[in-house]
Amino acid sequence: MLLWRSALLLAGIALLGLVFQPFFGWAVTFLIILAGMAGMLIYHLRNLHRLSRWLDDPTPQSMPEAMGSWDAVYSKLYRMVRAQGKNQRMLSAALDRFVAAGEAMPEGVVVLDEEDRIEWCNPRSMEHLGLDRTKDLGQHIAYLVRQPAFQQYLLNQDYSQPIILRHVAGNNFVLSLQLVPFDSTRKLLLTRDITQLERIQTVHRDFVANVSHELRTPLTVVGGFLETLLDMPDLDSATRDAQLKLMFEQTQRMQRLVEDLLTLSRLENGLEGRDERVDATALLQQLASDAEGLSQGRHSISVSQETDLCVRGNYDELHSAFGNLVSNAIRYTPDGGQIKLCWKLDNSQPVFFVTDTGLGVEAQHIPRLTERFYRVDRGRSRTTGGTGLGLAIVKHIAQRHQAKLDIKSEIGTGSCFAIIFPANRLLDVEEAIFAR
Ligand code: ADP
After folding, report:
1. Cβ of 355 less than 6 Å from ligand 1
2. At the fourth CATH level, which superfamily is domain 276-434?
């Protein structure tokens, strides 16, 4: 376009010169053509100069205005620059979104260049690996994660599996680290905090080991006696009866353990009983009679019921929880001791508690008593027929009723185990009668 317009203009000037030639001669004609060409040259040079200046800062706002053939050139450039600006804005918005997503990721991400130096890292990776974005960018990752296992992992170049690291940069995290090559030369280093997962796995492993151990002892006893009975068919009846009695006790022990395990698993899986009106008076009576049966007259058992208000809960679960506390009180109180079952209102909160004058528990054991299989004295728990799961069951049932298990104990003096319900679990008498 620019070329055609210029050529047409040149042709016009030449024509004008030729028109004047018959009147003023060739000299004037050449002068006219020369002047026209000089004018055109100045016009183009001026526009070229403006274009070159504009190219130093090519924004649509600073674009020079032009007349004639250069106007078309500037219009085209204007459209191109605007389109390019729009693309650039879209690209930078997309990049911002990617960076923001990386920053918000719950896992750590570090971008490594072809020489394993840090190009970028998100806040979670800084937390995991103790990185500082202000000074660690450009540093080799092996200088910052100094564990030999990681250095080996980096060198091996087999990144198909993550590696587990502990105490990176003095932190208490258990981390899973995995390198993911991308872009033919770069790598992503992904970090994940698996501290909680590890803890759950340890608890699970310990639990399986504990259950196996608890079952192995009675099974060994039963197996041993059975072997004797098979090998010695002429055993006198008194010895045989004694062995059968012991075997029966051991099977009962296994049965109790399996029942407790099933109860615990039901509670942990959220298979809860339906809430209903729990008549505290009836429950207390049943517990007192259970206690008498367990104690066989070895203890002095009393019941103190300061209120007959009922609670909303599950009768079977509460019977099991309160029953475990009563059974513990009897089992850990020497003969002649006193055991008291009490139901009362404390600051409008219904409370069930059992006090005993038994052995008591040292303060350092109290926070751990509700752990599965935690025993203060393993031998004593076994001889009294304990499964080590009683208080774990109590804790679960209390939690399910939004209640709190409170333990007070003094060695040699006795203990008090209380279940404190929230006030909103209380049913007043009329409500209770209505609910019947
Ligand atoms: P166990 O079957 O061993 O009794 P529990 O979970 O019921 O298991 O109790 C955990 C531990 O708490 C017991 O081994 C025992 O040492 C201690 N304990 C529980 N209740 C009492 C109590 N009333 N007096 C003294 N120690 C108790």
Report:
1. no
2. Histidine kinase-like ATPase, C-terminal domain (3.30.565.10)
Handedness of CA 329, 332, 334, 335 (dihedral sign): positive
Query: If 0-12 CB within 10 Å is exposed, 13-18 middle and 19+ buried, where does residue 389 land?
Result: buried
CA 385 to ligand 1: nearest atom: 2
Q: What is the pLDDT of residues 233-284, one digit of tens each?
A: 888 989 999 999 999 999 999 999 999 999 999 888 877 678 899 999 999 9
Is ligand 1 within 6 A of the CB of residue 320?
no
Residue 425 to residue 401: CA distance in whole angstroms: 8
Residue 425 Cα to ligand 1 midpoint, Å, equals: 27
Burial class of residue 229 in the structure, from the number of CB atoms within 10 Å of its CB (0-12 exposed, 13-18 middle, 19+ buried)? middle
Contact partners, residue 56, CB within 8 Å, separation at least 6: none
User: How does strand 108-112 pair with strand 404-410?
Assistant: unpaired
Number of H helices, E strands in the chain: 13, 13
CATH architecture of 106-193: 2-Layer Sandwich (3.30)
CA–CA gap between residue 399 and residue 219 (Å, rounded) = 34
Residue 3, pLDDT score: 75
What's residue 18's pLDDT?
82
The CATH code belonging to domain 204-268 is 1.10.287.130
Regarding the beta carbon of 414 and ligand 1, being less than 6 Å apart is answered no
- Residues comprising the chain, all counted: 436
Q: Which two tokens stand for residue 256?
A: 């109790």
The structure's pTM equals 0.69
What is the reported pLDDT for 1?
Answer: 64
Whether the CB of 375 sits within 6 Å of ligand 1: yes
Give pLDDT tens digits for 372-431: 999 888 777 777 778 999 999 999 999 999 999 999 999 989 999 999 999 999 986 555
Mutate to test the pocket of ligand 1, among 391, 406, 410, 416 (most ligand atoms within 8 A of CB): 391
How many Å lie between the centroid of ligand 1 and the Cα of residue 376?
A: 7
Q: Which atom of ligand 1 is nearest to the CA of 358?
A: 24
Is the minimum distance from the CB of 387 to ligand 1 under 6 angstroms? yes
Asked whether the beta carbons of 401 and 271 are under 8 A apart, the reply is no
Q: Which residues pair with 176 in a beta bridge?
A: 164, 192
